[in-house]
Structure formats: C-alpha cells, structure tokens
What we know:
Order of helices and strands of chain A: EEEEEH
Radius of gyration of chain A: 12 Å
Structural class of chain A: mainly beta
Order of helices and strands of chain B: HEHEEEHHEHEEEHEHEHEEHEEHEHEE
Strand order of the largest sheet of chain A: 1-5-4-3-2
Distance between the termini of chain A: 28 Å
Oligomer: heterodimer
Amino acid sequence: RAGPGDRTLTLTQRRSPTLPPPTGGDEAGVEIRGVPGRHSERRGELEWVENGIAVSLRSRTIGLDELLAIAAGLERA
Amino acid sequence: MTGTRRGARGHGQRPATPTGTTAARDERWPGPPAGNLRRVGALVTIAAAGLAGLVVGAAAVVGIQDAGSRPAPAPRATPATGPARSDAVGPAAASPDPGGSGPATAVPPAPTPSVLLAWTPQGLDPGLAVAADVDPAVTATSVVRGGPVDLVSSRDAGGAPVDGLASGWAIPLDALAIDPAAHAGFVSIADQAAVTALGEGEALLGATSAGLRRLEPGGVIELAGGRSLTVAAVVSDTAIGGAELAVDVATGEGLGVDTARYLLAAYAGDRAGLEQRLRAALTAGTAVRFRGPGETPFLRHGDAVLPQAQIKEQFGEFAYRPGSGGDAFVQDPAWQAANLTTVELPIVGAARCHRLVVDALAGALGDVVAANLGDLIDPEGFAGCWNPRTTRGSTSVSHHAWGVAVDINATANPTGLASVQDPRLLAIFARWGFTDGSDWLVPDAGHIEYVAPPGG
C-alpha cells in the first residue's frame, strides 16, 4: 500500500473511438503519442484515443510533463 | 457528545485523509488487457521520493486497471470509424515514431462530443429529458437525481469504526442518484469502470468526500433509517458533479434521493440551437440554466456556489439534529466553538460568522466605506451571517450554517425578485472572493457568499 513519498499512477484502457465529453472544465488539449489528447490538472489525468482504445493516465502526485513522458514510453502489444 | 467532528482546515485543523493513492483505491486485476497497449510491468510501487523520473518499461507503474473487457457505454449515434488496429511494434524508445504514424497508421480519434448541463429550480422539468432524448444533435443523456442523506456512523473495510455519532445526531451528505450505464458516458476514462459497475446498495465517493469520510472501497456508511451503503469506489469529484456520494437509481429511491435535478446532454453542433430547442420544451414559465464545462466549478444543479463537499473541505464538517420546528436545526456546539466567531463589522455591526471568512467580510465592508459607498448598505437590511438552517423549501443544509454567507440589503432584495443591489457594491464583494445571488435562477440578490480567496 502506498505511503508518503510514493509516486503512483493508474493506467486505464477502454475500447472506444472517442473520449467522453469533457466535464471537468479544466481540460486542456495536449498532443500525446502523436494524437490529440487532453489533460485535466484537477483530476491529474491524461486522456487520449489511439487505435480505437481510449487511454487514461491518472495520478495525484505526478505532473503533466512526467505523465507525457510515461505516455510516450508505453509499449504496444 | 456528538461524536467525531473535524474543524476547518487551513489553520491547523486539517481533516484526516485516507492513506494510499488512487492506485490503492481499485486493486482489481482482471487479467491481460483487451486493448493494444501492453501494461508496462507488474504491480510495482515506486516508493522513493526524489526520483529523477519513472523508467517506462519493465518496472514503473502501479495500480494498473484494465477496463478493456468491459464495453464502453454505447453512444446513441456512433461515429463511423475504421476497425481497431493491432500495431505490433517494438518498444516505444526504439521506434522511430512512438506516436504510431508509420505504415501501421493510427486511426485518428473521432471528434469528442460537447456536453451541456441543464437544470431548473425545484427539480428538473420533465420536458427537458424528453426533448433531449429525441433531439438529433444529442448523442447521449444522463438525468441525475439528488438529495441529502444523513450519515449516522461509518466503518472501514475491516469493520473498524470511523465516524460514530451519538443517538439523534447525523452528518448531512450531499447525494446523487445516477443511471450508471448512462452516466458513465459523462465521466473520464479512469472513472468509467467504477461508474458502470455501481450496483444497488453501493456508493461512489468523490475524492474530496473520501478524504472527509476517511473511507476507501469496502467501507460502509450507515444512514439514518437503517440503510447502509458499501463504498464501491472513489472517483474524481467531477465524475459525480462535486457531490459527496452517488448511488444508483434504485438505491436512491430507497433513500429519498429521487428528485431529478439536472440533465447532462452530449451533443454535436451548435449549442445555441440546442438550448433553444430544449427551452421550447419547458413547461411555460419555467426558468432554466444551461452550462458548459468550465463555466462553473462543477456541472450540477445549484451551480452558482460551491458544492457541500467543497464547503466542508474548506470550512469543516458538523453534525446536526432536528430543531424545534421550521428549517432550523441544532448544530454541534463543539464545531461552533471551534469555527465561529463574533466580530464587529463596518456598517452592519456585530456578526457571527466562520472565522475563516471574517477577514474577507471586514475587508469588503471596509472597502465599501473607503469608497464612500456606505450608503449602499442598509444596516437594518442586514439579516446576519451564521444561521443553522436548511435552505428554504428544501432539506439541504444552507451555507449560512457554516457562517460563510451574509444577507445584505435583504429586505430590499427578497428571494425571487430581481436584484436592486448596486453593482458597485457587488463588485467590491467579488474582489474579496464573494459571489451573490443576483444572477441565480431564483434570484436572491441579498445573499452574498464566500467562494474563493480574494483575488483568486
């Protein structure tokens, strides 16, 4: 179980051609792995769609730059 | 004794927050992903502070959940797309194009629909949902019900007590009831699985509420009347409109959370045209508020002020019990002692308010005096600050109960009538972090409420 100083994130994937409509109000467009995506600072979440898969990287402790770096480094099966 | 109560945070009395992170909140591990992005490694916790950066590859990510096996909620009109591709490329670091725009070209994502919120006072006008369901521009809808529930105790997943109150006392909670399948289309990817899976007798806690409750999945909330809810998951605050908890429709009906409050509509195209068509479907004389994302802190009904979870996080949470009649209730005296203070304010005189708001109040009123605008405030029209009661005509707790709102020139600005407040007065209060009810769907221009630090 995570404790102080830990840096964790959640990767979620769902089959979907689109992202859900933005409801947080703070979503900002950002390019992720060469496709348009979005980032919500309030949720600490990156979202994008790649090859019919909607992907989310969310973390309360990792900032946008690192999330983008993690996203860039994800491997494809 | 009323049991455990927490004072306001911001000056030393910070409510306890649950340990763990989002990763720990959902530890389901349903197996290999159906999607084409391979999980990067096993469950490995990154424990050291001060890491230069996560190493993507074998050992970086914790708390991976795969919702690929569960279908995403189907929109009513699905945009045409090509088949999902399975790109078998090497590690991203070795690929000349990690974005995947090489020969196995990624399918561009379909345009994301926009979302419109609509709500009407005293419950959602039934014409709105009917009209939205048949509107050609609308691809999906969610009708959200809402109402207060009373917590009488709680325990964590291991059965240890967390909140416990003396008999007759309760903690008011702001609750919503949703159709999980419909509502999942309006939450972020990370929250969709939790919302979709919400079952009867379960509750989703917003992240702020989970901190207030000190509960994680598996915890149990006992409500007045003998009902209990098991915490199924913690989701983002925005997933449930800033409410403290959400249940499914059937559970909501059993709890009295059964009044439709607002409609979310995903749509494509012209917002003004959609608003016009929805407005035409309203019962004659019904006022309606339309909002898009970002226009208010949360897409929900009653959106001009902070939701109760945010109020509690800033100003503390109290227990209450029924009063002698009317909309007044008895508030935890310990909370009052810890958080309320009586001060002498310019123009209006003595007032009892939350200690975190008095400086801003004094500052605003001082600026009114300094600008020689003191005549804009009728001292006889000052109806006070702190008042432990529900909002008129409902069972929801008024923000006056936290002492974070004042009624100024209330006699001249009764609820329901257009504002006669001088805009210069309201502008001064706005600079000090207050909002007012002049533009509310049911105007209440005498109500001036703290929503943000000055200049924020």
